[in-house]
Amino acid sequence: MIARFDIVQGTEEWHQVRYGKVGGTLSKGLFVKSDTLLLNLLAEHIEDYEPDYDSYQSADMIRGQELEPQARKELSQYIGVKLLECGWLQSEVNKLLGISVDGISENFEICAEIKCPAKEKHTRTIFNNAIPSDNINQCLHYFVVNDKCKKVYFCSYRPECKVKPLFVKELTLDSEIDLGTKAKPVIKTVREWVEIARAEADKLEIDLQNAIEKISF
Known about the structure:
CATH architecture: Alpha-Beta Complex
CATH class: Alpha Beta
Number of helices: 6
CATH topology: Lambda Exonuclease, Chain A
């Protein structure tokens, strides 16, 4: 595993290093029976990276970037472990796997996924007392990329909230996660999901190379 502390999230260098990789945003694709992820990666592997100067940032996205350092500080105090910002973690086992890290301990054993959402989502999160379904794959991906990871803390931070501005949930390798639906739950431990994701990533690496060779003729 390679930790890029020299890269700042959101910069051009950050966009370049994650180009053609399965990061937290795309990680759900490792559990979906579809060729969408493969085609997305293929498109990026057969064309050079180009800056997207027209990319849009909403007010919520900008607000989240501004609040994240404070959220990381308060989360560090809450769990009693200093968390560092890391622009990118790169797997050395599978070159397609990586993740942008919102917080990581010096020994790499503890990671954090930090969100600074709008009031409706933060309220829904603290009411349900659970990691939102659209964030669970990102949390799981930390374990997939980082073989030293023992704990991941999901943090929803909204200082305006008078009841619970800092919401924290801990995941370990033994935690159970449901990646199914309400009608058809599929519950496995983090450890089991990690094994599945890594196997799919290895297959994806082979499929990507085969696809590149196929269209090269």
